[in-house]
Amino acid sequence: MLKTFSIGGIHPAENKISAASAIEALPVPAMVSVPISQHIGAPSEPLVKKGDAVKVGQVIAKSSGFVSTNIHSPVSGVVDKIDDVLDASGYKRKALVIKTEGDDWDESIDRSPNLVRNISLSSEEIIKKIGEAGIVGLGGATFPAHVKLSPPPGKKCDILIINGVECEPYLTSDHRLMLEKGEEILVGTTILMKALKVDKAVIGIENNKKDAIEHLKNLATAYDGISIQPLKVQYPQGGEKQLIDACIKRQVPSGKLPIEVGAVVQNVGTAFAVYEAVQKNKPLFERVVTVTGVSLKKPSNFLVRIGTPIATLIEAAGGLPDDTAKIVGGGPMMGKALSSAEVPVTKGSSGILLLPAEKTSRKPVENCIRCSKCVSVCPMGLSPYLLMSLAQKAIWDRAEEEKIMDCIECGSCSFTCPSSRPLLDYIRLGKAKVGQIMRTRTK
Amino acid sequence: MNRLIVSPSPHIHSGDSVKKSMYGVIIALMPALAASLWYFGLGALIVTLTAIAACMFFEFVIQKYLLKTTTSITDGSAAVTGLLLAFNLPSNLPIGIIIVGAAVAIGIGKMSFGGLGKNPFNPALVGRVFLLISFPVQMTSWPLPIVSASSYLDASTGATPLSMLREGLAMGKTAPEIMSQFPSYIDFLVGNRGGSAGEMAGIALVLGLAFMLYRKIITWHIPVAVLGSIYIFTGILNLSNPLEFAPPIFHLLTGGVLLGAIYMATDYASSPMSKNGMLLYGVGIGVITVLIRVYGAYPEGISFAILIMNAFTPLIDKYIKPKRFGEQVAKQ
After folding, report:
1. pLDDT > 70: what percent of chain B?
2. Which residues on neighbouring strands pair with residue A46, listed in sequence order?
3. If you write DSSP's letter for every residue of A234-256 in order, what string do you get?
């Protein structure tokens, strides 16, 4: 019996159609738009102005607080303007638009392909370096990585969990990374272990990536304290709380962070970025993005510079199929529907998914038949049907009692509902309102 | 450039629908329907078709002319109610009574509360119990299987094993004496005994259960809790005094226990939402069924037991919550 998390979960069609496509580096785009808010926390402060020349890897916006991070130029060229640009949120937000000239990298970056195993920095130096390199959680949550590596006083971490689950259907960027950059991920994991001062790390990988499990298992024999944990394919196993439960049978209490049970979770993509930052002095300005969809000519995994318009990626994958009804930034379960193909790739972009109407159109909403499937699938053990009606009726105190804030917005309830009820839509609304009420209370 | 849909996640759906669930239940009931046609032939056919047609008719008429809303008779739920109602009736019941039962099941049991998903009680059972109280003679004369397969209203009738047990005990016989007159448990399992159209063949009902579990239409919790609690409760009674109380397996295979536990108690709208709630609800049904059978005025009690526990469902949902993530750790 393979391990998995203990409550709820679903198994949507996996559709990993781009799994066999090796990572391909896209040419440097002629123009990039780099939003200053690509992470959870305070937006970064621009350091350059219109007309400034920049190099690849140069800091162009600096961290503006503890939960914030630096942003580096993904191209060399000239800052064309600082303007409001439509991003994945659907709003126009401030971004640095850079016109590319050549591909001139900052001299301090080690561009050789050699693997560097020896870790020379101390724990504190590693965390500082990761903070400077602008690394955020690359699974999609985009929480600044150095913050997670600095547990609050009194909390002790005893295990690092690396998230190689990639439980979202369609997405394959982490899968490819594990196959092609396995050594780097393991060195990155070792660096993260050193930063956290732990001697154990578990890399959790779902069993639909048997080749990656085998590959990393073979490599991991040369690394102390790192074990590979195959997991049963079950969504949303990539959620932090679910992954910790699946790997080490510890449940993070309601409203708490993983550190409460002595664990820190980082994505495999983040571990790779940490390797590059610490061993190669290369900050985060490019990432692997899956471009996929059943009607797409060439489903691919691209290594792209941050700020590249996703239209460029879609072109490189064979062009926008005629039947495209929705462009999703991320996976089909938790990704965001984009309002335009001009939206730039950001640090959190794990994939671009093109869905035809018949796969994504919502069906007419019917009465709740109380089938209890939403309750069965909820990985947090909530009652989605009840939370939805509490939100509809604006009964916020009961919604709070029913733990509406525990919802991780995985969408399993809406996915499963035979009556096609918009459960998560209303729960989100309820979370926003209850969150607001809770904040005014603590003030 | 195409016009893009922008809506919140999730962007895909399982494809499950109310229709699929309802037709799944209908498919699961097919083996039992085949068994009832085999044993009661013409009568079963007339009763089943009348009940289904009448339920769909009343739902259509009420939605179209009374509520003036869109009609939903194709979603299969009215057909399920009709089928389950028919399964709870003797196969020699006159058409007029069946139609009254369907009108009560759909009109009062379902539509008066707001239709699909809003009914606090199982509609088919509301119809059945209404008929049982209103037409006690017709509702408790059970045609004999096989011999009455080609007859309808003129079928030769006999008592059910449960009523024979009750009358036998009242006359001062011991349980084993009465049991010795019954066909074997194998006959019970394949349905060769008196009873309502759908409760005949235990094996056909269990086959339907397997199908519904496989298709994830229902979970095991309610059927197992009902059957398990009946088995344990009657088992304890039987051990305490084998002369007065029938063995537990007899209780599981007679009356509508299997039909009730698998198809009636699991009605979505009128059963609890959490797994623990389902277990409590199932045990409640089991215990009340045995109490009615052993100490009550009726020989059979599962219909009443289910309706009584239906009434407790909102209370169960209020106090028994699903197991929440992180709760165990928080308690340590």
Report:
1. 92
2. A61
3. -BTTTSHHHHHHHHH---PPTT-
Q: Is A442 exposed, middle or buried (0-12, 13-18, 19+ CB in 10 A)?
A: exposed
Report the candidate in B252, B197, B192, B216 with the shortest Cα–Cα distance to residue B83.
B197
A326 at interface of B, judged by CB pairs closer than 8 A: yes
Query: Model's pTM, two decimal places?
Result: 0.91
Contact A414 B13 (CB under 8 A): yes
Domain ranges for chain B, please list them: 18-138, 164-319
Domains and CATH numbers, chain A: 133-280 (3.40.50.11540), 373-442 (no CATH)
Q: Is the pLDDT of residue B156 over 90?
A: no
* Cα(A290)–Cα(A285) distance, integer angstroms: 17
pLDDT digits (tens, 9 = 90+) for A303-349: 999 999 999 999 999 999 999 999 999 999 999 999 999 999 999 99
Does A248 touch chain B if contact means CB atoms closer than 8 Å?
no
Cβ(A369)–Cβ(B269) under 8 Å? yes
ipTM: 0.90
Interface of A with B in 365-394 (CB under 8 A): 366-373, 375-376, 378-383, 385-386
Q: With bands split at pLDDT 50, 70 and 90, how would you rate the model's confidence at A268?
A: very high
- Euclidean distance between CA atoms A74 and A59, whole angstroms: 10
Q: CA-CA distance, B90 to A283, in Å (whole number)?
A: 79
Which residue bears the tokens 């709760």?
B327
